[in-house]
Amino acid sequence: MTPREQEIQRRTELxxxxxxxxxxxxxxxxxxxLFGGTALAWLDEVSFIAxxxxxxxxxxxxxxxxxxxxxxxxxxxxxxxxxxxVKVGNTSLKVEVQVYVESMSSDGRELAIQGLFSFxxxxxxxxxxxxxxxxxx
Length: 137
Hints:
Distance between the termini: 13 Å
Number of strands: 6
Order of helices and strands: HEHEEEEE
Number of helices: 2
């Protein structure tokens, strides 16, 4: 394993990000389930934090792969968002986010949403820069 690969492994292990939220009525839609736009904002936030933990550079979200809404998340649920960096390129990173839902009144949890977000590291002029400047690709 090269020094760059070792550093990527070390940083990605440290970058796993978990955020737990309660689904309150202010975050739901007319079906009394989590509003999709709110869910997407939460996923983008968690993926951004995980990506930032790897490179500690300014980042922008450049794309998402399909976001899979496996089933609705009812008001009054607890959700845990887990972001993991799954790929580190020269100037970009990919972060997978999984959203688990659980009831406030019973044990167990289920995967409700998952998505993949792509980020690019940028400089002050908004141009792409290496994610790990001290480690050549």
